[in-house]
Every structure is written in structure tokens, then in C-alpha cells.
Amino acid sequence: MRKTLNSGRITLADVAREAGFSSSTVSIVLNEAPLSRYVAANTKLLIKETSKRLGYRPDAFARSLRRRRSLTIGIMVFDISDPYCTLILKGIHKTLQPTGYLPIIMDAHNEPKQFERYLEMMLERRLEALIIVANWLFVDIKMLGELEREHIPMVMVGRSIPIGSMSSVMVDNEAGGYAALQHLYKLGHRKIAFVRGPMKLEDSSERFDGMMRFAQEVGLKIEPQLIVDLPNELDPLSGFYEGCRLTNELLTTGKSFSAIAAFDDLTAFGVVRALHEQGVGVPEQCSVIGFDDVPHAALFSPGLTTVQQPMEEMGRIAAQRVLRGIDALGEDAQAVGNDGHTRLVPTVTVRESTGRRRK
Fold it and tell me: Which residues form the HTH lacI-type domain (predicted)?
């Protein structure tokens, strides 16, 4: 009695009629309700086989209304074109894929107003959790407090803000900066230039603090004339062009240097481009190291040596954390709290853009 496309979708009642059981029994079995343990194994098997043969698909929307659950998790990114997001989203997707939760990705396009609008829509649609993949333009938005009052589990990837129930997953930027300068030092570089991130950005100061800690330990002199900063008001993707401009600025100081440590990979790409245009070989005359290990770093020419953030792992941890938060809410509406702030240790991925200092 299989319905055709013209006669409408297969319903629970159709499965019940075909299998010869009541609609309530079929519903209990297909929804794996607690009462299903009292249904005979042969009955369960027949109902499931009939359901599959007829092509029955449960009405997820109706089921969510009955349970007052949306079974959706919001993933907010500030700029989905930012290569930094790619592997984080991959880690989130891999973790959520085996579950019954539907991820909904929202791109705020670096607009705080759009971010706020999406948060309002989340509240209206009863999304069950929120993961924010923050870039350097993220600002503390009061709307997050509303999600906290609604006991919605929240995790931020890449940044940490002081909201009680929001946990965070990020890289240990200071350890990454330390490792970057240590790598250049081991290659024999002693005169090193720095293209730092925006001064107001915490990531930038933490990475440079790590570099300064290593410099102090080994007695490495850092010349102030060889330190330049990306501007504060900057689109993340324009770091490439600013990397070009600031490298040209360094080349006009008259100060010699054999290596450049860039704030991130996009900035490092700009550094390499500027050096190439000025006839400076990389790494023959100047080594360059970045930070992040975005997907294009391995494909760049020369392949970019960089401090690798474990971005896919960061996404996986964030997804696991909101799932635990949802489970906690199922037991006690007050149980979901701060699940901690995790800082993962980065590692240096060595490619062709760094080499031993040559006389």
C-alpha cells in the first residue's frame, strides 16, 4: 500500500496499518520511547522493517514541537571566508554528524548588528546551544547575556569573554609566540623583525609576550625599529595587504634583518609577497614564519613555516562541550555552567619559508 509522490508522504498511521499494530505501538517503537522495552523483539523488528519498506520518515518538526526541543545547534562565525574558520568548522561538523542535532551556520559578515539579529533569531527558534567562532573583530555583545538567562549552553572558539556560563577553547598564544622565536633562533637568526597584530587585540600581545620571554631567556636583543603593528581597524582578510605594506616599511628603515615573525599566516603571505617584489629571496635572504597554519599555508610558494593551531581539535572540543551542556540541561535547568576555559598548546610546522641564516 505504498503511497506515491502524488498521494502524499507516508505517515505513522500508514506504517501501523501495514504492520497490523496500533499507531501508539508503532510510535513507541520508532521513537525508541522508554516503553519500547516492553514491546516484543519480533514486533519491533516487523515495525522497523515495514517502516523502511514503505519509506517512512519521521516528522522532525512535529516531534520537536511535542518535545519542546529544536534539536538544532547554532554555529556563529564572524566571517566564513576567513581561512581560520575552515578547520574549526570541520571539527564541529565531524563531532555533531553522528548525533541527532542539526548544525545551523550563521555568518555575521563582521557586522555586530547582524550578529545581534542572529542571536534574536536563535532565541525565537529555540536553538539548543551556540558555538561562536570569533575573529579579532569580535566584541563583547550584551545579547549573549540573554542567552545565558535562557540557560543556553555557549562555547566560544578563539576568544574568551567574562560571561558566567560561556566557556572557551583557544590556543595558548604565548606558548606559540615563544615557539616561533625559538625556531628562528635555532636556525641562527639574531636580527629579527616583527609584524605584530593590532595593539588592542589580546592575541597579538600574548604572542609577542611569548617571544619576549624567549628573547630574555637567551639574551636576544630586540630592536624597536624592527617592530611594526597592523592597524587596529582592520578586516582580517586585509592582513595580506597590510603585511606587504609593513614589510616595505621595514625594508626602508635601513636596519638589516634575516627573519620576520608575522602575526598570522595571511600577514605572512603579504610579507613574502613584498620580499619577493623587492628581490629578497625567501628563505635564502630572509626567513618568514606565520601563525595559525591555515589550509593554504602548505600550498603557498614557498610553503609557509607557521605555528599550527590545532583548529580541528578546537572545533571538536567546542562541539563536545555544548553537547554536555545540553545533556546537563535535560537533568537540571540550573546545571549548565562554565565548563572551563581550555588553552591548547600549538606546535611549529616547518616548511620551506624558513632556513638557516646565511652570512
Answer: 10-67
